[in-house]
Amino acid sequence: MRKSIGKMPAVFPMPVLMVAAYDENGKVCAMNAAWGMVSAMDKICLFIDEDHKTTQNIYVSKAFTVALADEEHMAEADFFGIATGNKMADKFERTGFHAVKSEYVNAPIIEEFPLTMECEFVEEIKTDNTHAIIGRIVNTCADEKVLGEDGKVVPDKLNALIFDQFRAGYYSVGERKGQAWTEGRKLMQ
Q1: Other C-beta atoms within 10 Å of 110: how many?
Q2: How many whole angstroms separate alpha carbon 138 and alpha carbon 140?
Q3: pLDDT band per the 50, 70, 90 thresholds, residue 103
Q4: How far apart are CA 184 and CA 148, in angstroms?
Q5: Could you tell me which residues come within 8 angstroms of residue 53 by beta carbon, excluding any fewer than 6 positions away?
Q6: Rounded to 10 degrees, what is the CA torsion of 24, 25, 27, 28?
Q7: Looking at residue 60, what is its pLDDT?
Q8: Taking the CA atoms of the chain, what radius of gyration do you get in angstroms?
Q9: Which of 46, 81, 180, 185 is least enclosed, having the fewest CB within 10 Å?
Q10: What is the structure's pLDDT at 186?
Q11: Residue 56 · residue 145 · CB < 8 Å
Q12: Distance CA 94, CA 77 (A)
């Protein structure tokens, strides 16, 4: 039996994305954004408000990075979501994290997060119903500890966090359950 639980954004899992950009003085600003997703093989779309300090910095620098938060750095990732750079000038510094400048775009790579997409700002979408920042992914870098022998990311090693909108919880990605584009082939016959 099904029960109505009300109007809610019931998408699960949601990524825990760490968005970082430089301000006009080259200072790092970072935020936690769950409402984002790839929109093409080389594009990412972030549904973030334009009043965020990080959003304003993306407009200035024309670039940003998007890292996947991991289980090891959950407290800092959560902090990036609850503290605002508009009111806390030393937000990034309080975490004790380190950043290096991307070789590909004018944006910081937060060294503690194991996987980062380096993006050029492409477009802002602004309507009555949404605000989105679109970036073109020009490079993705990963800590070698999350790579397999074939050079590809191993999700079990990544320990990426996922966000639960139902109870505002964090979870880490679990074990592999199947092979995409293979499991459903028997239904093709």
Answers
A1: 23
A2: 7
A3: very high
A4: 26
A5: 23, 29, 31, 84, 85, 86
A6: 20
A7: 96
A8: 18
A9: 180
A10: 87
A11: no
A12: 12
139, exposed or middle or buried, with CB in 10 Å at 0-12, 13-18, 19+? middle
Q: What is the pLDDT of residue 189?
A: 83
| Contacts for 175 with CB less than 8 Å, ≥ 6 apart | 156
One-letter identity of residue 117: M
Question: What are 169's two structure tokens?
Answer: 């919880």
User: H or E segment at 156?
Assistant: helix 155-158
Q: Which residue, among 122, 128, 117, has the nearest Cα to 160 in the 3D structure?
A: 117
| Distances in whole angstroms, Cα of residue 15 to Cα of each of 1, 35, 61, 94 | 30, 7, 24, 23
Query: How far is residue 128's CA from residue 143's CA, in Å, rounded to a whole number?
Result: 40
> Could you tell me the two tokens for 72?
């090891």
Q: Using omega within 30 degrees of 0 as the cis cutoff, is the peptide bond preceding 13 cis?
A: yes
Give per-residue pLDDT as tens, 6-37: 998 888 899 999 999 999 999 999 999 989 99
pLDDT digits (tens, 9 = 90+) for 67-93: 999 999 999 999 999 999 999 999 999
Give phi and psi for 146, each to the nearest 5.
Answer: -105, 5
What per-residue confidence (pLDDT) applies to 117?
98
